[in-house]
Amino acid sequence: MSEQSPVKITVTENGWYQVEGTTEIIASDGSLIREGDKFFLCRCGHSNVKPFCDNTHKTCGFVDDGLGKKPKKD
Ligand code: FES
């Protein structure tokens, strides 16, 4: 039995949720949207490719509540 690291979700400053660790993104109908080890999920609600971030948060004026950390997007 292999041991996996826990998934880590980082709230970025005025931006996306950064998800690190083996993850499956599942649609409401149960179908697989994507699987992988790193995702950037929309937090502002304005992305055109939800649930993923498309950087619209930079132009829509999204400002978070101060919970976010400085972003580290590769
Ligand atoms: S957080 Fe980036 S588009 Fe919403």
From TrEMBL:
What span is annotated as the signal peptide, if there is one?
Answer: none
Keywords linked to the UniProt accession: 2Fe-2S, Iron, Iron-sulfur, Metal-binding
The record's section on InterPro entries has:
FeS-contain_CDGSH-typ, MitoNEET_CISD
The answer to keyword Methyltransferase applying to this record is no
The record's Gene Ontology cellular component field reads: cytoplasm
Residue span, Iron-binding zinc finger CDGSH type domain:
20-63
Q: Answer yes or no on keyword Iron-sulfur.
A: yes
**Which Pfam families does the protein's record reference?**
zf-CDGSH
Which Gene Ontology molecular-function terms are recorded?
2 iron, 2 sulfur cluster binding; metal ion binding
What protein does this entry describe?
Answer: Unannotated protein
Q: Which organism is it from?
A: freshwater metagenome
The taxonomic lineage of its organism, from the top, reads: unclassified sequences, metagenomes, ecological metagenomes
